[in-house]
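Let's sit down with a protein and look at its sequence and fold side by side. Once you have written the record down, we can walk along the chain together.
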Amino acid sequence: MMRPRLRLTSVTIGTSQPRELARFYSRLLDMPVTTEEGPAPGEPEEAGWAQIRAPEGVGAPTLNFEYERHHVTPVWPSVSGGQNASQHLDIKVDDLAEAVEWALGCGAVLADFQPQDEVRVLLDPDGHPFCLFL
């Protein structure tokens, strides 16, 4: 059997605050919010869905932010019995110090544990870790 054509187009991040997190990553990555939906009937106000997408030709994946009713903030670094981050975003930068300063100004928090000299682990406003690297 021939392998079918498969293309990765997006990553969906489960969160307790999808619209707010989309706005954070929109500012951080300079990618516009392209979709923003509020809660469905009967859902809490923070529920909903949002998306950011790079302009055509940029080649970056779309990021979707989906409400998770029972979201548990990941623990970084992982600990036995804690909620592990099942994935994280790696973001290449030209100047690590400048990128960290920008991310902090956007609302990220520098993680206490930093495992490598040329990588900085930060936490987004909902506690998901992401890495800035050279």
